[in-house]
Give the backbone structure.
Amino acid sequence: MKRSIAILFLLFVSIDAKAGFIEGLEDIPVVEGMTQTTTENLSFGNEESRLVETVLQAKKMLSFEKVEDFYKTTLPQMGWIYQGKRESTLIFEREGELIEISKESTSPLNVRITVKSKI
């Protein structure tokens, strides 16, 4: 049990050291080299459902493939189950919620992240 706790602690410390977390989605990390924009955030919900949406923008040259690799590796460690890819959108599911990670533009790279209830 102590070993499991230590591993989880190290996992979260290593993720946090590489990147911060998205404001409003404190359990979704930001890819290193990207920042959260403040102009395109959306958040509302109640006890039964929620919708949170934000856009990340690359500060340097970064490919969407790097973003895909990061989230396909990181999110399952946080309980998200990869459901597949539809065009330029990755889809994950966890506890009645979906997260969609979509490429909005390539130069600069903008990525829209949407978390919504599966109602």
